[in-house]
Amino acid sequence: MESKNPVFSKSRQQAGGWAGPNPSPDMLQNMYDAPSYAPPTRPAYRTMTLDDVVVRGFLTLGALVVAAAAAWVLNVPPVVAIGAAVVALILGLIASFTQSTNPALILGYAVFEGVFLGKISALFEGMVSGIVLQAVLGTAFAFGAVLTVYSLRVIRVTPKLVKYGIAAAIAALGLVLVNLLVGIFNGVGLGLRTDSPIGWIFSIVMILIGCFFLLLDFDSIEQGVKQGAPEKFAWQCAFGLTLSLVWIYLEVLRFISYFTNSD
């Protein structure tokens, strides 16, 4: 499947894949007079490898985990956690829409998101002992399951799958927004975030959407390595993985809380 990512398209152009304008007669004569052998050309940059993604992924997730642990231990006030969430949202949107490969921007997102996750996790742990460990294990299981499914080609990333998956994600986020707005008036919204059958189903859907984005991340990494994306694109891949894992973790945390009491 040909990737639509502009980074890949640019890398193919730089590597000599673009045909360019029609040659003039002088250009044809120069080509005829040139030696019959020319050494193979190489891109002007180092291309991304899987190891690059792994290293940057560990750095990004490591920054998030350290920030979360610090926020938990220091018991940051809720207003600080909310402020960190807003900053993380802004940085995340910038990194997503600009396809940024800036390490400072991506690590900054990880730190602020970590502060928010640390506070949220501490609140859930205060209500239900052991729930954070269960959510972490659930997220790790989801990561491993999606990686296995992708590696075995059980599910292939096709344009149709991407179209339907993105549509489902937009619809789910729209429902979350409507649920919040309705909740201002009746306190429970549409019931999408309550301990009820509709809440359970919606949480499962959100977890599956997070797994879908994880599938897209794996495909993006594979296509980047195959098509010779620049080394710095590994930062964008690490950001995508972190974003998907945060999504899954929060949804798993909420889902487990429905079936666990604090007695």
How would you explain this protein's 3D organization?
- The chain is mainly α and 263 residues long.
- Helix content is 75%, strand content 0%.
- The chain is built from 9 helices and no strands.
- It has helices at 6-17, 25-33, 50-74, 78-97, 103-127, 131-151, 159-186, 197-226, 233-258.
- α6 packs across α9 (233-258) and α8 (197-226) runs antiparallel to α9 (233-258).
- It is globular.
Task: Jot down its keywords.
single chain, 263 residues, mainly alpha, 9 helices, 0% strand, globular
Short description:
Helix content is 75%, strand content 0%. By secondary structure, it is mainly α.
Distance between the termini: 52 Å
Strand tally? 0
Task: Tell me, rounded to a whole number, the average pLDDT.
Answer: 84
Strand content: under 5%
Alpha-carbon Rg, integer: 23 Å
Derived from helix and strand composition plus strand pairing, the structural class reads: mainly alpha
Number of distinct helices: 9
Low-confidence stretches are 6-20
The residue fraction in helices comes out at: over 70%
What would the principal axes of the Cα set say about the shape? globular
Largest sheet: none
Order of helices and strands: HHHHHHHHH
Annotate the secondary structure layout.
Elements: H1 6-17, H2 25-33, H3 50-74, H4 78-97, H5 103-127, H6 131-151, H7 159-186, H8 197-226, H9 233-258
Helix pairs in contact: 3-5, 3-9, 4-5, 5-9, 6-8, 6-9, 7-8, 8-9
